[in-house]
Design goal:
Length: about 100
């Protein structure tokens, strides 16, 4: 029993790290993966580098997205699309359509 009380703080620390660091990170990675899989033509997106555009086409061979910007069409990897910023952009576009 004495050995258990010695290891209790270490075990508790691993539990706290799992629930506050590892689990939320895995959940966010899963959400980003589903977001990238659910992209469709016509979605307005922002890349992680800050490029704004509209999805024109997909390249399943390279797992990439072709985005139309003011400068022309650019190919980006699906993982380079920012989930948070793109969702905010699409929500504001829907709000404008409703008015």
């Amino acid at each position: 029993m004495d050995q258990l009380t010695q290891f209790a703080p270490i075990i508790l620390m691993f539990v706290v790290v799992y629930f506050f660091m590892i689990r939320p990170q895995m959940k966010k990675a899963k959400q980003e993966k589903t977001f990238a899989a659910e992209l469709k033509k016509g979605d307005r997106v922002i890349t992680k580098s800050g490029m704004h555009g509209k999805i024109v086409d997909f390249s399943e061979k390279n797992n990439s997205v072709i985005i139309e910007t003011g400068a022309g069409k650019i190919t980006f990897d699906r993982s380079s699309i920012s989930m948070e910023m793109s969702q905010k952009l699409n929500e504001s576009a829907k709000d404008k359509d409703k008015k």
